[in-house]
Amino acid sequence: MSGLRVAPVWRRRLALAGAIAALVVLPLIPGALATGSVVDLIRIPVESIVVLLVLTLIPWRMLRLAVATAFAVFVAVAVLLASIDRGYEAALGIHFVPLDWLQLGDAYGVVASAIGPGPASAVFTAAVAVIVAVGIAAGWGALRVDAALRRRGDRGRSALATVTVAWIVMAAVAPPLRIQDPVAAAASATSVGSAVSRTVSALETRARVARDVAEDPFATLPAADLLTSLQGKDVLFVFVESYGRVALEGDRISEGVNDVLRRGDETLGAHGYATRSAWLTSPTYGGVSWLAHSTLQTGVWVDSQAVYDLVVRTDRLTLSAAFGRAGWRTVSDVPSNRHPWDVGTSFYHYDTLLDATNVDYRGPSFGYARVPDQYTLEHFADRVLAASDRPVMAELDLVSSHTPWAPLPELVPWGEVGDGSIYDDQPARSQQASEVWKDPRTVQRYYGRSVEYTLGSMLSFLENVDDPNLVVVMLGDHQPAAIVSGDGATRDVPISVIAKDPAVLDAITDWNWTPGLRPSDASPVWRMDAFRDRFFAAYGSAG
């Protein structure tokens, strides 16, 4: 009979030990995620102390259940926020702002491109399950430990009081003793509090940006005074995805990219082009390219989704709108997009929107890049530039250098691009993303090769388009993620102005940019939001 009584005791003790472990460890997970150290799981969490103190004061069972549920939700939300923030820091070099939650859908799309929709769904489902399990375990742990404390009466209350006093003492002595990682922790509270603080700061930033948007000296300029020095020119703003400073300076990357740029200088010179280059500091890093696009177009520092959402609902004068007002046909060519893009017409005021659905591409996908860059440029040259009855201004987003950088397309003879079916067997000849991403060095190598391909596509375009009035502004949108750029990398990206007409480059002589496609260490570094106003000043009659 005694054996039958012992088993339930051990089960209760084991359950209590598990409940205590849950209360100690789970609220500390946000801190461990923030630092990347499991040592941060060896602390005393204030959140668990507080919930137990509250529970001991409540005589009603249903109210205790409600408090435990609230605690469970709080811990789960804290872990969720900390997990997302960790991902943002690793991929984008920034902290997550809850106002930017819509970006999570784009993040999922990138993951799906890298590892496939099935595995991406599995990862997402597993992550949701873990967060839910954390919340359930935290709430269960609080109720279980509270019940144990109640059964022990005064001894239970004394134990809780001792832990509470110990936490207060350790928290109090940490600052004067300069203890960086005190045993007294508030990791979950810090995670939620930081997210709230960043949200408040983002709202304040939005108010400041609203004032900046309203202060635009070019907004009321007559169309006749806009961009007069470029009249009759086809002007292309070409964003090269993830084309950052590391592509020109990074180990295992820069040699191949710089070779392409050197050969490009020779080729462009032979075809009558001249080039000037410098650096721009991007508002984003590792992704969220539309922040860079909108910053260049508006002259406003758009460094978050919240700011972007605000700016695109205003009437701020964009480069594309200015060209449209001055008589150009304006075109957006975004080969990665497959969905309606209302902002393209409502804010940027493009006449024509090209994307993956309307460029007649019949070839294979290359990871994130639905359409390889050489096809994008060849189609644009034949169907837009050659067919337009007036000068064209366009923004083209070249995405073959978008993460995950595999599989990679290969350059083909310009005249054989056709409908893209020539690329059919190329994906199988390249390593797939799931293989590439097993080794950071392989990721870096494939990143470099992707930039080489995109730059090669651009040079192929310039060689084959016989347009003496062509002006190209080619730039990167942001640095690649830390797995390529490294920790603490700058946000600098190259920018080049390419033209045959000497007057185009003469107009920017006082910019002091470096001749050639590769900016030097001595080349100017501007914030990306400075470009629009300087461009207007250089090429407009009122400048």
UniProtKB/TrEMBL annotation:
Keyword Repeat among UniProt keywords: no
Residues passing through the membrane, by range: 44-60, 65-84, 122-143, 155-174
SUPFAM superfamilies per record: Alkaline phosphatase-like (SSF53649)
Database matches in InterPro entries: Alkaline_phosphatase_core_sf
Keyword tags: Membrane, Transmembrane, Transmembrane helix
Official protein name in the record: Phosphoglycerol transferase MdoB-like AlkP superfamily enzyme
Provenance organism: Microbacterium trichothecenolyticum (Aureobacterium trichothecenolyticum)
